[in-house]
Design goal:
By secondary structure, the chain is of the alpha/beta class. It is 42% helix and 11% strand. A six-stranded parallel beta sheet has the order 7-6-5-4-3-13. Strands 14-19-18-17-15-16 form a six-stranded mixed beta sheet, sandwiched between helices. Strand 3, helix 3 and strand 4 form a beta-alpha-beta unit. Helix 1 crosses helix 2 and helix 7 packs across helix 9. It is globular, with a radius of gyration of 26 Å. 53% of the residues are buried.
């Protein structure tokens, strides 16, 4: 027999469901989600035990449907032959999973997103599946579209920009102008393609030069600047009914381990945590603008040094995602946050290596998280049963009091409140073709592309020397990280200096002898470098681990060799008295070690390129900016968002 407390809680949830859940419908005249004044299809108190709690729990789950292989049976060892077929069209069985479960949210990745028409159709089909559910509650459809390094929409048909650190480089001269303008464009393009949640902006304060996963995803090292730029981007994005997500709480800016592959620890003092890591979050909370915050799979012993027993039997310190002291006592009580808390992906090794799938969800819900992101994978038909199985186990945790019912109710109230605030203002895409036409007009429009180039032009930073090539230089050899960047920069330079003779080699696979011959024949040398290498966050997530290890594992282990090769070639160029320009294409910290070889050093904070769908050219705003710099057609105005030893840099020749 249920306790009186549980009966009262169930009655309270029933009232909430009466007010919010079952009242969602689509108005036929406006084609908008609306709250119905009627009370049709209400969940009764009699059957609420089975339906209501299960619905509340389902709303707290956000799944990824990145890959799907319906005609295959999963191997006993899924890592041996994993499913790698992108889910670009919603199959009926996955639509039924959403409909039958009242699932709360879906996250999509670049593999799911091929072109504008296909993206609109996919998000349309996802929302239609939710509209057929018993609750008719619209889905959170989310994506990681930070801009710069982390962009999921196709770069050729959307506007991805140079990223947050490039925005940070404009702050000294332009304030929050570009944070606002970028947030506005991201919001427009995501809204047009059917997304209502963006897992950005990133407000981690990058104070660790060796940070492998955040670095240029951060606005910089100054907490106040990060706070102002993050809030400006968030506000602009949310004007288009796209919920922004501040991340990664309580801060991922001073780590040397990627939480995709391990469990980082931040040993800051409480004072430093408040002054640095928490400051951007507190700023947004105080301005009452943030409705979603993402947790970090990071240990913060000064905030919570309590331990747990991992699935392997080891005693471990709790990561923030599993810490009630951090998510509830600190974030909600001390900092006054009332919005949604979503976990970072629970399949990341910072969590999955230590918790079973169900235990991870239970622990993060108990800590205070409202939404569990990617608690398990759906890759094969048999995986679909994992969702009802998880809901059964969570339902049992409610009744065994491993999960608190009132806390679940409070979480549901927050979810429904945010959905009412944002999702009811957006159209349910019944007419997918109409929305496709509208999206095609918005994405990568001329105006958006011009702004993308403008940000690149105004963020490039001159660290040392003069970027303009001497007029006597008639030939230039480029040393670039790979062949695609050779093509992109060569194409850009030819447009502004058509008479300049160009050659280019890829540091990745060129021979030293061939490089030295080309350096010897050229009047000057320009070298580009990317440090650090691509992280799991850039590639998309843990599904890319095997590909990452194959493609980048060997590169990472050979990073010193590749750097040594580049330095040797630049040393050779200096011995020949060739003018050398060094371009840091990602984190500018490497300028210090290359300054001895370079007369000029430039930071761009970005390196990505794409193939223009109209011309077929490999292009990018950053390479256009570099070309204009060396042609003397652009004056660099960017300022470093992180500290370098400028005395050391300028003293070296």
């Amino acid at each position: 027999m249920k306790s009186l407390h549980l009966q009262k809680t169930i009655l309270l949830i029933t009232c909430v469901l009466t007010t919010f859940v079952t009242a969602f419908h689509v108005d036929s005249a406006t084609n908008n989600w609306e709250i119905s004044p009627s009370s049709k299809n209400l969940i009764s108190a009699q059957d609420f035990d089975s339906k209501g709690i299960r619905l509340a729990l389902a709303q707290k789950i956000m799944l990824d449907l990145r890959y799907y292989c319906p005609d295959r049976v999963e191997n006993s060892n899924p890592n041996k032959n994993p499913c790698k077929t992108p889910m670009t069209k919603l199959p009926q069985e996955l639509a039924d999973m959403i409909t039958n479960s009242n699932l709360g949210g879906i996250i999509l990745f670049s593999d799911n997103l091929q072109n504008t028409a296909q993206i609109v159709q996919l998000t349309h089909d996802l929302q239609q599946a939710a509209a057929r559910s018993s609750s008719k509650i619209p889905l959170f459809i989310s994506v990681d579209q930070e801009g710069g390094r982390v962009a999921r929409l196709p770069r050729a048909t959307s506007t991805s920009f140079s990223g947050n650190m490039a925005i940070g480089a404009t702050y000294k001269k332009y304030g929050t102008k570009y944070a606002t303008m970028v947030g506005d464009v991201l919001g427009q393009e995501l809204s047009a393609t059917g997304f209502n949640v963006n897992h950005g902006p990133n407000v981690d304060v990058n104070i660790n030069p060796n940070n492998p996963v955040i670095n240029v995803r951060s606005f910089g090292e100054n907490p106040s600047t990060v706070a102002k730029l993050g809030l400006a981007q968030l506000q602009a994005m949310q004007k288009h009914n796209v919920i922004g997500t501040l991340k990664h709480f309580p801060g991922h800016g001073d780590t040397s381990v990627d939480s995709h592959t391990g469990l980082p620890r931040v040993n800051h003092s409480l004072y430093k945590i408040k002054q640095v890591d928490l400051a951007p979050f507190q700023y947004a909370i105080d301005n009452k603008q943030v409705d979603m915050i993402m947790t970090a799979h990071i240990q913060y012993p000064e905030l919570d040094n309590s331990t747990f027993l991992s699935k392997s039997g080891d005693v471990m310190m709790k990561p923030a995602t599993m810490s009630k002291k951090i998510l509830t006592d600190l974030l909600r009580t001390d900092m006054g946050y009332q919005g949604l808390i979503i976990t970072d992906a629970l399949d990341m090794r910072g969590i999955s290596a230590f918790f079973s799938e169900t235990e991870a969800v239970v622990e993060t819900f108990n800590a205070g998280a409202d939404i569990a992101l990617m608690p398990f994978k759906v890759r094969f038909k048999q995986d679909i049963t994992q969702l009802p199985n998880l809901l059964n186990e969570l339902n049992q945790a409610i009744y065994s009091k491993r999960l608190d019912t009132k806390q679940t109710l409070n979480s549901l109230q927050r979810i429904l409140s945010v959905k009412e605030k944002y999702l009811l203002k957006s159209q349910l895409p019944n007419a997918a073709k109409t929305n496709q036409d509208q999206a095609n007009e918005i994405l990568a429009s001329d105006k958006h592309r011009e702004l993308e180039q403008e940000l690149s032009d105004r963020s490039v930073t001159l660290i040392k020397g003069s970027p303009k090539l001497n007029t006597k230089i008639t030939s230039l050899h480029l040393l670039m990280p790979d062949q695609s960047k050779c093509v992109a920069l060569t194409t850009a330079i030819k447009k502004v200096k058509p008479k300049l003779t160009l050659s280019c080699s890829s540091i990745l696979n060129s021979s030293d002898a061939a490089d030295m011959k080309q350096i010897n024949q050229a009047n000057a040398v320009l070298a580009g470098s990317i440090t650090p290498y691509q992280s799991m966050a850039e590639m998309g997530g843990m599904d890319d681990m095997a590909a990452f290890n194959k493609a980048f594992g060997s590169l990472s282990s050979n990073k010193k060799r590749l750097d040594s090769k580049l330095k040797s070639l630049l040393r050779y160029a200096k011995q020949l008295n060739k003018p050398v320009t060094f371009v840091s294409l990602r984190m500018p910290y490497e300028a210090e070690q290359y300054s001895i070889y370079a007369d000029t050093i430039i930071a761009t904070y970005a390196y990505n390129q794409y193939q223009d769908i109209n011309t077929g050219e490999i292009t990018s705003p950053v390479y256009n900016s570099l070309a204009k710099l060396i042609a003397g057609k652009l004056t660099p105005t960017g300022s470093l968002p992180v500290s370098l030893d400028m005395n050391k840099i300028k003293a070296q020749h």
